[in-house]
Design goal:
The strands form 3 sheets. A 15-stranded mixed β-sheet has the order 3-4-5-6-7-8-9-11-13-14-15-16-17-18-19. It has a two-stranded antiparallel sheet with strand order 1-2. Strands 10-12 form a two-stranded parallel ribbon. Helix content is 34%, strand content 18%. Helix 5 (159-175) runs parallel beside helix 7 (201-207) and helix 13 (434-446) crosses helix 14. The chain has 16 helices and 19 strands. It has helices at residues 30-33, 42-94, 102-111, 134-141, 159-175, 191-198, 201-207, 222-225, 303-310, 383-386, 389-396, 414-422, 434-446, 478-489, 501-510, 512-521; strands at residues 5-6, 13-14, 149-153, 181-186, 213-221, 240-246, 268-271, 295-301, 318-323, 334-335, 341-347, 356-357, 363-369, 402-406, 429-432, 461-466, 494-499, 525-529, 535-537. The radius of gyration is 37 Å and the shape is extended. With 540 residues, the protein is of the alpha/beta class. Strand 18 (525-529) and strand 19 form a beta hairpin. The relative contact order is 0.04. Among the domains are: 1-37, no CATH class; 39-93.
């Protein structure tokens, strides 16, 4: 049925709002509806009024029906919600998670703990597990490893805070049973507060459990650290020690503290240096065992101090050190025959590589700093020769498989990078900072097909970085430059792009993700990750 209304003068047609499924009688004043003219006769006026009243009554009936249907629909929705909750509850009953043995669930809980050190919170594990159900609460409280991580941090030593600390520590000690402990103690940096903190009863409570210490983090004034004298000879389990011990008081405090000098299982030592002028760990005032260390982390000392430490650590397998300045005094060669992984942050002018002999070295990470912003390498010799890296590799006769090279201050030239990589033909994995990533691709693009046969002949995995500013030499040439490099090697099977949010936008604009998709379709393993190694973009 045609429900449109047409003007009798021009023929313009307007559809009515009525649905075609519901027929409405033709209006007796159809001609007046579109004409904008008043009724000409009393009969037309009466007809219009009668039709309006009937239509309004009909509309009210429809509205009432709609209200009834809405109410019925709302009741059905509420019923559905109740049924859905009922279904979900029964799904939980038959869930396979309920069948997981308590022992396995306990292991899952331990792996769900936040990185240590962490502050105990009801919104994070392990307290969060207690809020799920009675079973989880029972499992949580009967899993000693969950409560073996204890962090004590300085705050106002009023009675309320002290009581809270004691309750927290006593609870963890009780629930952890005989499980080895990971302890973190962070003290004040104001000497006026050190004396008060040194009397905190929680220190004595933790020290009384020193036979169970497996990992220990101490960031304390020397005055407070000396209060741990009672742990001497009781560190039989200690395997990891992270120290930032500083001297706050002005009086002479050079008496050797040897409570930690004997720890037969100590393998990892980390030495931080907030206060270089009072470096009581490096100078031996806070004595630590070093002969058995296999892992050492030292931050920002001069080369002379680091060399003195290395001579006492013949068993190192992993070394991470940051050199603040290169001491002008000549240093003796240091041979670390077991060292496999070396990470150095060092000035651009450093030559300390030449004094290292590392026959077992396979992985190296170098972060190049340039303390003098105006200094630039103008020598005809490439960086790996000037720094002594070439000499170290030659004397060590090691087979370096992985190199991670960072130069955020643009000290290295293309000449330095290319010659450094040519000098290490054994490389299978290469990781470069944003500047050097662009430099490598530029070299591959503009080499004119003359890439040396000794340039990365064994490379299998390549990690390039994009960060902040636009990578100058990536642009649309990325495809050609990378294919030139990959084609030269013929071995690259994995490409990883590390980037931040700005880098993601740049890669999107330049079409790099599409190129990566093509490379993936050709069989290459391709990933785009952030700097925490989380996947940033899925390459299809």
């Amino acid at each position: 049925m045609d429900t449109s209304i047409s003007c009798p003068n021009c023929g313009f047609s307007t559809p009515t709002v009525a649905n075609s499924e519901y027929a409405i009688d033709t209006s007796p004043v159809r001609a007046l509806i579109c004409s904008n003219l008043p009724p000409a006769t009393t009969s037309q006026l009466n007809a219009a009024q009668q039709t309006l009243q009937e239509a309004q009554r009909y509309l009210r009936d429809v509205d009432e029906n709609i209200s009834q249907m809405d109410a019925a629909l709302q009741r059905l929705l509420e019923k559905r919600t109740a049924l859905q909750n009922y279904v979900e509850a029964h799904k939980g009953v038959v869930s396979s998670l309920r069948k997981v043995p308590n022992e396995i669930l306990s292991e899952v809980f331990v792996h769900a703990l936040p990185p240590f050190p962490f502050k105990l919170s009801k919104n994070r594990a392990p307290l969060l597990f207690e809020r799920v159900c009675k079973r989880w609460k029972d499992i949580s409280r009967s899993t000693p490893a969950l409560w073996s991580y204890i962090s004590l941090r300085y705050h106002d030593c009023n009675i309320r805070n002290i009581e809270r600390d004691l309750k927290y520590i006593s609870t963890c000690l009780a629930r952890s049973g005989e499980c080895p402990l990971s302890i973190s103690i962070v003290g004040p940096t104001d000497f006026r507060l050190a004396a008060r903190y040194s009397e905190h009863p929680a220190l004595a409570m933790l020290a009384a459990q020193s036979e169970r210490w497996r990992r220990l983090i101490l960031r304390l004034p020397m005055e407070v650290a000396r209060k741990l004298e009672m742990v001497k000879g009781r560190l039989s389990l200690l395997s990891s020690l992270d120290l930032d011990i500083y001297q706050l008081a002005n009086e002479d405090n050079t008496a050797v503290f040897d409570a930690f000098a004997y720890a037969p299982k100590l393998r990892h030592l980390e030495m931080s240096s907030v206060f270089l002028a009072q470096d009581v760990v490096a100078n031996g005032v806070f004595a630590t065992p070093r002969q058995g260390l296999t892992s050492l982390v030292v931050d920002y000392r001069d080369s002379k101090v680091i060399w003195g430490i290395l001579r006492d650590c013949p068993s190192l397998v992993v070394l991470e050190a940051a050199i603040h300045t290169d001491n002008e005094a000549p240093l003796q060669d240091v041979k670390l025959q077991y060292l496999q992984s070396l990470s150095l942050t060092l000035p651009s002018s450093s030559t300390m590589h030449s004094m290292l002999i590392l026959p077992a070295l396979t992985h190296a990470h170098f972060m190049i700093l340039n303390p003098d912003a105006d200094a630039r390498l103008e020598s005809a010799e490439p960086w790996h020769v000037l720094s002594g890296l070439d000499k170290m590799l030659s004397r060590s006769r090691c087979i370096l498989l992985k190199l991670d090279l960072w130069d955020n201050e643009s000290h290295l030239r293309e000449f330095d990078l290319v010659n450094c990589l040519k000098a290490i033909p054994s490389l299978q994995e290469l990781i470069l900072c944003p500047t050097l990533s662009s430099m490598l691709l530029k070299y591959a693009l503009y080499s004119g097909g003359t890439i040396s046969e000794i340039f990365l002949p064994n490379i299998q995995e390549l990690v390039l970085s994009v960060r902040n500013a636009q990578p100058i030499h990536w642009l649309q040439a990325f495809d050609r430059s990378f294919r030139a490099l990959a084609g030269h090697s013929g071995l690259i099977r994995s490409l990883k792009i590390r980037t931040d949010e700005d880098g993601l936008e740049i890669c999107e604009e330049l079409g790099i993700f599409k190129i990566l998709g093509v490379l993936k379709s050709e069989g290459m393993c391709v990933k785009v990750v952030d700097h925490d190694e989380n996947v940033a973009v899925v390459i299809l």
